[in-house]
């Protein structure tokens, strides 16, 4: 489903090169959960961003369903990302001036911006998604009125609205307490079980790697196991 071939990403920090990702070749399987673990600064986030087409590698290739995503134009890659891949970030990245419902609707509106008459069903779908993540009563709240756990649930609903085949999660509970973390992971694994979405989770949580089908350990930009 996603295949990375000899991926490299080097940042220039002052006069020093930082090899954030240093020759990674991995495969993410359909409908499976993959945990990416490793110490801070190991290159996990950089790798996840490269897998999802959010960044550009210094060299190497990423194939999504056989398509070389960095061989596409920026616009084509953005289109593919919006439709095929959902993202969940540590700090939610909700738009503060929009309600929870509107935040969830956004990726679908972007996808179908020319078809105005679909907006009603997008609204319905966003409402259903909010209900499925346990936030039915929060649809009209703005992010500033939501707790961390609630904000992450909105972000998960938003990531799901275009029915992605892959959900990439970058330390999705890094900003939450243990109780909220557990319920967010429960939700993510439930989504995977019910929709068959592949999950890729950058995490420090051993319980998550135990529940995952595959574990990729990263150190100094390389896969160590
Ligand atoms: P992790 O997610 O495992 O904590 P990151 O992928 O965030 O690791 O970072 C890997 C390395 O790349 C670190 O040394 C980090 O400082 C460096 N790095 C990440 N992003 C940038 C950037 N935009 N510019 C310069 N260096 C970066």
Outline the structure in words.
- It contains seven helices and ten strands.
- It has 225 residues and is of the alpha/beta class.
- The protein has one domain (2-223): 3-Layer(aba) Sandwich (Rossmann fold), CATH 3.40.50.300.
- The strands form two sheets. It has a six-stranded mixed sheet with strand order 6-7-8-3-9-10, with helices on both faces. It has a four-stranded antiparallel sheet with strand order 2-1-4-5.
- A hairpin with a 2-residue loop joins strand 1 and strand 2 (16-28).
- Helix 3 packs across helix 4 (119-132).
- The chain is globular and about 50 Å long.
- Bound molecules: adenosine-5'-diphosphate.
Low-confidence stretches: none
Q: Helix proportion of residues, in percent?
A: 25-40%
**SSE string, helices as H and strands as E:** EEEHEEHEHHHEHEHEE
Q: Decide which structural class fits the backbone.
A: alpha/beta
Number of helices: 7
The structural domain count equals 1
User: What is the CATH C-level name?
Assistant: Alpha Beta
Largest sheet: 6 strands, mixed
What is the terminal separation in angstroms?
20 Å
Number of strands: 10
Cα-based radius of gyration, to the nearest Å: 17 Å
Shape: globular
Beta fraction? 25-35%
Quaternary state of this entry equals single chain
Q: What CATH architecture would you give? A: 3-Layer(aba) Sandwich
Main β-sheet, spatial strand arrangement: 6-7-8-3-9-10
CATH H-level homologous superfamily name: P-loop containing nucleotide triphosphate hydrolases
């Amino acid at each position: 489903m996603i295949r990375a071939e000899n991926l490299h990403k080097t940042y220039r920090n002052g006069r020093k090169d930082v090899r954030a990702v240093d020759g990674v070749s991995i495969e993410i399987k359909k409908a499976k959960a993959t945990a990416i673990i490793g110490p801070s600064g190991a290159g996990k986030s950089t790798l996840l961003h490269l897998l999802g087409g959010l960044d550009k590698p210094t060299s190497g290739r990423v194939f999504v369903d056989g398509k070389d995503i960095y061989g596409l134009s920026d616009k084509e890659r953005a289109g593919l990302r919006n439709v095929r891949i959902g993202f969940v970030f540590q700090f939610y990245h909700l738009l503060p001036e929009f309600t929870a419902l509107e935040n969830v609707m956004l990726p679908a509106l972007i996808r179908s911006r020319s078809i105005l008459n679909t907006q009603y069903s997008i609204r319905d779908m966003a409402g259903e998604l909010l209900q499925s993540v346990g936030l039915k009563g929060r649809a009209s709240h703005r992010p500033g009125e939501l707790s961390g756990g609630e904000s992450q649930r909105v972000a998960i609903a938003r990531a799901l609205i275009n029915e992605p085949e892959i959900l990439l999660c970058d330390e999705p509970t890094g900003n939450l307490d243990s109780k909220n973390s557990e319920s967010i992971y429960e939700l993510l694994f439930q989504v995977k079980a019910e929709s068959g979405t592949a999950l890729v989770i950058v995490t420090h949580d051993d319980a998550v790697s135990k529940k995952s089908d595959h574990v990729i350990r990263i150190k100094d930009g390389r896969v160590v196991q």
